[in-house]
Structure formats: C-alpha cells, structure tokens
Amino acid sequence: MNVLVTGGAGYIGAHTCVALLEAGHTVIVADNLCNSKVESINKVQQITNKDLTFYEIDTTDEKAVDTIFSNHEIDGVIHFAGLKAVGESVENPLAYYYNNLVGTMVLIKACQKYGVNRFVFSSSATVYGDNRVPFVETMDLLPTTNPYGETKAMSERILTDIANANPVFSVSILRYFNPVGAHESGLIGEAPNGIPNNLMPYVTQVAKGKLEKLRVFGNDYPTVDGTGVRDYIHVLDLAEGHVAALENLTEGVHVYNLGTGKGTSVLELVKAFEGANDIEVPYEIANRRPGDIASCYADASKAKRELGWTAKHDLISMCRDAWQFEKNYKE
Ligand code: NAD
Ligand code: UFG
C-alpha cells in the first residue's frame, strides 16, 4: 500500500515508518517538524535501507495536503501529526484545538476528495478519564482534564460521525497507553524538547546526569506502593500495532486499545530501569501532579482477537532500549 504518514518524523511516527517499510509498504511522510527533526527521516531510511518520500508541510494547510494527494495514489493515511504536551495545552488551548482538529479535518476532506478510505488515528488512553481499570473499548468515555485530551476525544467523535455518514470510509482509532523505549539500533527514539514531562525520558536524563533527580509525583495513591500505575508499551510494539490496524481495516469504525494489559508503578519502573541498565536513578517523593489519575492500564484483548496483535516486549527491554537511545543521543 501507499501510506501517507502524517507526523512521521516524530517519535511514534518514525518507528511506524520503519515497520511499514519493513512490511513492504511505500511511505510518504508529511510533517512540519514543529516537534521533530528531519534527521529522523534519514535514520528511518538508514535502518531499513529503503527510501521514503518526505514533505515538510503543515496538515492544517489544505493546499499543501491536496498537493500530496494529487501527487500520489494514496491507499491509506496514518495520522500522527498533532501537538501532545498536556501542560502546554492548558496554557494555549487554541493552538491545540486548531492544530489537532483542523489538521484532522483537512486530511479527512482530502481523503473524501481523492477516494481514500483507510484512516488510522492516534488517540490516547486519556479519553477514558478516571474510569475503572482495566480500560475497555466499550466503556463510556469520561471528561479528560485538559484541552489535549479533549482534542483526542473530539477527533474520535468527528471520525466516527463521518464514517457513519459514509460507510466505505474505514477508520481505526488506536488508543495508546504509555509509549516508551526506542529502536534497538539506538538511531531513533524519544527526544523531547526542554525538560521532559513524561516519566521514562525524565528517568533516562537523570541516569545520564542531565537532571539531578526524579521527582515521584505522589506516593499516596491506592496502588501497589502508592505511586501512579501506567501501562508502558514498547514503541516497537506500538508501531507493529499500526501496521496490523492498517492491513486488517474493514468498513466502519474500530477502536482498539494498544497496551500490554499490565500496570507498572513509578517505583517499579525505576527499579526495573536500574536493574536493566545497572545504573542508579536518584529520586525523591513529591506532591501529586494535578490532573494525574492513580491507575491506567488496558484490556488489550480486542486488538489480539481482531488484529492478531499483542505487545511482545517486556519492561526490561523498554528500559534497556530507552537508555541505549539516550546514551547515544546528542542534542
Ligand atoms: P511527536 O511530537 O514526537 O510526533 C508528532 C509529529 O507531528 C512531530 O514530528 C511534529 O513535528 C508533527 N506535527 C505536529 N503538528 C503538525 C502539523 N500541524 N502538521 C504537520 N506535522 C505536525 O509525538 P508522538 O509521541 O510521536 O505522538 C504521535 C501521536 O500520538 C500524537 O498525535 C500524539 O498526540 C499521540 N499520542 C502520543 C502519546 C505519547 O505518550 N507519546 C500517547 C497517546 C497518543
Ligand atoms: N511521573 C513522575 N515523575 C515525573 C513524570 C511522571 O512521578 O517526572 C509519574 C506520573 O505522575 C504518572 C506516571 O509517572 O504516575 C506516568 O506519567 P507520564 O507523564 O509519563 O504519563 P501520563 O500517563 O501522565 O500521560 C501519558 C501522555 C499523555 C497521554 C497519556 C495516556 O503524556 O499524553 O499518557 O495514557 F494522554
């Protein structure tokens, strides 16, 4: 298939480009590089020894998107392009609603114009809100605590309404849990700008000595050791989940959790990281972070049943690969 990957220079997008190329697909990337570098495209080509086509464009730019659709016979779209920093979305909600919603609608419009009927969308476990774990696709969604999360819930709604009105338009909505790790080559991985918000990049930067110590946000949650529990999933597994979703897409709207189904606490992750890499991660207990929930993990059985996909990598390989990337990474 000829696959348009928006946001393909980003963290999850680049790993998915590798998986798509390795599965024999042709890849066209559209990315405005607002949170990534063009080098990741070169690294994808280096890892796979295959070429892809890259357009530096904004998905909210209708004309630029139209040009891509008219230049290529696109069979399917995987839409990663979006802004994703929760705190920033609270400070600048308009940027988030505009970028994430308009970008999605411009792409759907182009799909309709050019008869492209396969659409895979990056959603997030955040749309479940503070539901009871494990999160199942059939649950009623609860409000999220920030504009970023709302853009995901709204995009899901928009895609569902459009698919219902146009039954040949096939949509796969993928709700990711907590993506971590990196390609085993150490060439691509997660390189956040500034001080990381997320746990794993924070841990790797403490291990590297770039940051002094980890602050563990709360140790009084109703969890195994009082710290927050999440379902960490290796980005390589996540990438394979996209290939499976695209290749198995049938008419209608399909929602899948992409997680491991296993919850890990902050302290369990720190311990696993120290053990996997034989390195110490100093930490202190701090206050809870506003907006955090106690526990978030997937019921991942639907993706297994319908897509034949399950996560294969364990926490130790997530920690090893995340560290391998950080060790080699130069700003
Ligand atoms: P990322 O920031 O590394 O990648 C996103 C890419 O999209 C970047 O390369 C950025 O330059 C590009 N982009 C953003 N807005 C764009 C626009 N208007 N036009 C063109 N390109 C644009 O993020 P990621 O972690 O790879 O996330 C990919 C997707 O998955 C996002 O939609 C994100 O919200 C979603 N998601 C991520 C996580 C996570 O924890 N990483 C969890 C759930 C969902
Ligand atoms: N945590 C710390 N210290 C830190 C960073 C995080 O203790 O410096 C804790 C958090 O309190 C939480 C856990 O580590 O208990 C995981 O936090 P992350 O920030 O890594 O991930 P979140 O689960 O909060 O959020 C992530 C993405 C969201 C996405 C959500 C979906 O950042 O975009 O997963 O599950 F919506």
Bound molecules: nicotinamide-adenine-dinucleotide, uridine-5'-diphosphate-4-deoxy-4-fluoro-alpha-D-galactose
- Whole-number average pLDDT? 97
Give the proportion of residues in helices: 40-55%
Strand content: 15-25%
**Cα gyration radius (Å):** 19 Å
Backbone structural class: alpha/beta
Overall body shape: globular
Task: Describe the protein's architecture and organization.
The protein is α/β, with parallel strands linked by helices and 331 residues long. Helix content is 41%, strand content 17%. Strand 1 (2-6), helix 1 (11-22) and strand 2 form a beta-alpha-beta unit. Residues 84, 86, 124-126, 177-178, 197-199, 202, 214-217, 228, 230, 266, 289, 292, 296 line the site of uridine-5'-diphosphate-4-deoxy-4-fluoro-alpha-D-galactose. Nicotinamide-adenine-dinucleotide binds at residues 6-7, 9-13, 31-36, 58-60, 80-84, 99, 103, 122, 124, 176, 179.
